[in-house]
Write a structure and sequence with these properties.
Length: 249
Amino acid sequence: MSFEPVQRVFAIGDVHGRFDLFRRLVNIAARNSHVRRPANTRVVLLGNIIDYGPDSARMIRGCMQINKATPDLVVLKGNHEDMMAEALAGNLTVYGHWLNFFGGRETLMSWGIDPNVANGPATMGNLTAAARAVGDDVIDWLTNLPLYYRQGRYLLVHAGIRPGITIDRQDPDDLMWIKDEFLNSSAHHGHIVVHGHTAAENGPVFRSNRIGIDTAAYRTGILTALGIENNETWVLCTAKEDFQVKLIQ
């Protein structure tokens, strides 16, 4: 997996259907870039842009449109994108779990789908109707999202990595779902791993080997980004009008 190199990256944590916060944070990042030295810049969303919040359809459509126009937005696959794609591809068991436990109903409602389908039982009839409304282009886009992104000494991924395994040999499920084995590890991973997936409502989590930036935006109203340039990192978030939040070397 390769991307054209850029000097500056803004990694953004789990949006979960909060387009309002995403738009605000992108504007904050743009202002932040304007006061720094000029640099080629890319925004990397760490996955879970959908579910729970009210604007999943708007998030997906907007990201798809930007992806067609420029390489300067990268969307990584999170466990929620993976579930949505698998569910709407015809897996009835996953469809039921996605609806009932992972915010799938809110996502279908954001598509304007008949409430009887979105709020109805997990049947093949309802699954087929939902998939038809969402469209094959969206399902294909979700299916083919990349799983990780490298920026210098930083590795950006949705959930984390399994310690002791090189990135090219990681199980995709670990990259999208792993928790304790990664979070509790003090191992040096060869990169500092920048991740979402595990919410920390009190703010980003900094460890010697990882930085967690999921701040539960859909319920806290705080969406967080990590700026990365060379060996410098800094935090931006929607909680403050002043975007000069905190510098971390």
